[in-house]
Amino acid sequence: MSDGNCQSDVNEPPCAKKIKKDEKNDNGVAEPVLDLKDFIPSKILNNNTNRKTVCVQGNFKDKSGVALVILEKNAFKEDELDSEGYFSAESDLKTFFQNDIYGNFECFPKSSINGVKTTIIYPATEKHIAKFSQQEVHIIQETSDCYNKLTLPHIEKEQFNLQWVYNILEGRSEQERVVYDNKCEKEGFVLVPDLKWDGLTKETLYLLAIVRQRGIKSLRDLDGSHLPLLKRVRDEGKKAIFEKYKVPGSQLRIYFHYQPSFYHLHIHFTYLRHEAPGIYAEKSHLLDTVINNIEMMTDYYKKATLPFTIREMDTLFNVYETNGYVQKIKPDIKLIDK
Ligand code: M7G
Q1: pTM to 2 decimals?
Q2: Rounded CA gap, 248 and 245, in Å?
Q3: 47 alpha-carbon distance from chain centroid
Q4: Three-class SS of residue 99?
Q5: According to a count of CB atoms within 10 Å of the terminal CB, is the N or C end of the chain lower?
Q6: What is the chain's Cα-based Rg?
């Protein structure tokens, strides 16, 4: 589907690479060697028992700065449910109790299928700590006026660094993970497994299309001039995912987040059966609906009132609080578990 100016590259499957001591990254810059045995935990920021993820704040021995370690129990891979995987001689079964026809055990499968997905953010900023902390969340109805007067000035002065995005676009990081690359400056994009996905487990498929065009911050900036780009992302993204993972477009949830964490336009592709974080009505906007709205009214997203959720530790919360749009939950009306 890509033309001469919009050629694409498709890569081989990604695989986890072990960072060796003093290894240089694709930029030729030595990456800090991080080892979990050197991690000194100081605070649990969030322990989500539904998602089975935990975020721990701490620091690395002999290294300055705060680090966040996010651990997540992986979903089961269906192809490991056989005599080579969970039902092999290497699985150790400890009995809790047996009663009549009911048995309760704990299984310790072989370590190669028992990994814990681990994300390390180091050095982490206050914004990262806020993003991963459990906290009160509110919903704000952002009119076009609120966006221009409150949100936009705030994101212009304070936002997450986009270096990781540029590293992907400029071929400096995650190149072995790239699934599809359309190099057209105006309508091109890179499709890459999301940080939250191991790139292997179909059941939790999660990819990100990062557009090559700079300066499109979010959904709010989109208008009729972006329709060719949006349709290309949708059509070529679906095709590349089908070719590589055999998941048809009809089983993909393709959407934007509003507000995003990173203000360089990107589109999320997740497996419809997978309840990825951020798929709910207050945060996600389906790409097809966005295309349709813009087709009906070119400046729809400049005019629309868009809801977004905001957490109390976020600095944008202070902006809306100061201007009287939202109030912090007082401790005495918080639900307390006794
Ligand atoms: P978002 O909608 O801006 O923010 O999505 P969210 O975190 O509130 O969803 C940004 C997406 O980029 C998220 O799904 C992240 O998991 C993903 N992401 C973040 N980083 C720092 C990286 C990265 O370094 N590599 C990749 N592949 N994905 C990332």
Answers
A1: 0.84
A2: 9
A3: 18
A4: strand
A5: C
A6: 22
